[in-house]
Design goal:
globular, oxidoreductase activity, five-stranded mixed beta sheet, Cu-oxidase_C, mainly beta, Cu_oxidase_Cu_BS, Immunoglobulin-like, Cu-oxidase_fam
Length: 427
């Protein structure tokens, strides 16, 4: 069946957030590369492409979740000057929960894996961090079947990141996990947000930084020792329940320490923050039907009852009351302004469904409720969380490229289980 975990050794490639062709040999997620085969991929990046951090990952429907949950992802930094690379943090979660499987053991069983699931060494590190930072690291025993997801940073578990006292350092971050939303902060340090999905946000000083799976953020981190000889500051994600009405009280928000900032006294002159490219976009909010034709579309995310598929019990996840099918698609015309209303149908699951669309970014023109939690009215994005008991209105203009693209929930277990649809950009 199509909306199940299947073909775990079949893959393809998607360049998340990039404005490139979705057809032919380019960012075409309808191609497939089966085990033992190969694909030629040719992606032409426009000269005026937005600058910033993007990423690539598999996108073959039915195996996206298990492949990204196993670490198949990489960063792409589009820069004017490639001789200097910003500090990039790729946050990857080894996780197999989120609608299609229970955990790593479930993934191993469904795919008939014979690999050992022993996490003894990781468990030792996990417990040690819980000893040092009990307020931020929950107590789990990571070797039992319900162990939590692990995040690694640039391929390392709990890496040390060096900083100087008072240094303002830029980091570009991608949440490359398949399931968990991040709510980031660094106790004792300040964070200034300078980009979200490569675009400047209105709210640059949030209490914590929300990053849904697939989203990216640029931040400036500054830590002060206050006369101490040195310091260790944990880079933390944890749920903040003041936003449960927006985020959903059962939404998977990672709770734990991701990395450790090791701060030493300044040994060399501190430089000011390096300049960041600002991607300027037109403001579409004031356009009315008198100015030009606007096409309207409502996209509804909803859950259904669990059902047996291929001998495995799956939860059902719908877009506009349909499971994914090659036969159902929304059609829009090149250069014609789109206004979409995105809404999550209330359910007993109380879980968020982050929205992502390929090829073209969009502007937030209305939110009800949730302004300034993940984004603000007027912000441009390509991947966002959605209010659980409300809706978001976005506008965008499909430009430059025609063809089939995908719009979907970026909790990839939900997407593989059916919460994805095709959108056709016509000439």
């Amino acid at each position: 069946m199509i909306n199940t975990m299947h073909n775990p050794n079949t893959t393809n490639l998607h360049v998340h957030g990039m404005h490139v062709s979705p057809s032919g040999l380019s960012d075409n997620v309808l191609r497939k590369d089966a085990s033992g085969e190969s694909l030629d991929i040719v992606i032409e990046i426009p000269k005026d492409h937005p600058l910033g951090l993007f990423h690539y990952h598999p996108h073959y429907h039915g195996s996206v979740f298990v492949q990204m949950g196993g670490g198949m992802v990489g960063a792409i930094s589009v820069q004017e000057d490639t001789t200097e690379v910003d500090a990039v943090l790729v946050l990857q979660a080894f996780s197999f929960k989120g609608g299609i499987l229970g955990n790593l053991y479930g993934a191993a069983n469904v795919s008939n894996s014979t690999l050992s699931m022993n996490a003894e060494l990781t468990n030792q590190s996990y417990q040690r961090i819980a000893d040092f930072f009990p307020d931020f690291q929950p107590r789990y025993h990571t070797r039992v079947e319900n162990y939590p997801p692990f995040y690694i940073v640039n391929g390392q578990y709990l890496p040390r990141i060096p900083l100087q006292d008072g240094e303002r350092k830029v980091f570009r971050i991608v949440n490359a996990g398949p399931t968990e939303i991040l709510e980031l902060f660094i106790p004792g340090c300040s964070i200034e947000v300078i980009s979200k999905d490569t675009f400047p946000p209105a709210n640059k000083r949030p209490k914590y930084v929300v990053i849904s799976p697939g989203a990216r953020v640029g931040i400036i981190v500054e830590c002060q020792l206050h006369s101490k000889p040195s310091g260790v500051f944990p880079f933390v994600s944890m749920p903040h329940h003041d936003n449960d009405d927006y985020m959903g009280e059962h939404t998977d928000i990672y709770h734990g320490v991701l990395a450790l900032f090791h701060v030493e006294p300044a040994s060399k002159p501190l430089l000011s923050s390096p300049p960041m490219g600002v991607n300027e976009m037109d403001d579409l909010r004031s356009i009315t039907p008198r100015d030009e034709h606007i096409e309207h579309f409502v996209m509804k995310f909803s859950n259904g009852p669990s059902e047996m598929r291929n001998g495995v019990m799956y939860k059902t996840y719908y877009m506009n009351n349909r499971l994914f099918s090659m036969d159902y698609r929304y059609q829009m015309r090149l250069n014609v302004l789109q206004e979409w209303t995105l809404m999550v149908e209330p359910s007993k699951d109380h879980k968020n469904h982050p929205f992502h669309i390929h090829t073209n970014p969009f502007q937030i023109v209305a939110i009800s409720p949730g302004n300034d939690i993940d984004y603000s009215i007027g912000d441009w994005r390509d991947t966002i969380t959605l209010p659980l008991n409300g809706n978001v209105t976005i506008r965008f203009r499909p430009v430059d490229f025609t063809g089939l693209i995908a719009a979907h929930c970026h909790i990839l277990g939900h997407s593989d289980a059916g919460m994805i649809m095709l959108v056709e950009i016509q000439p």
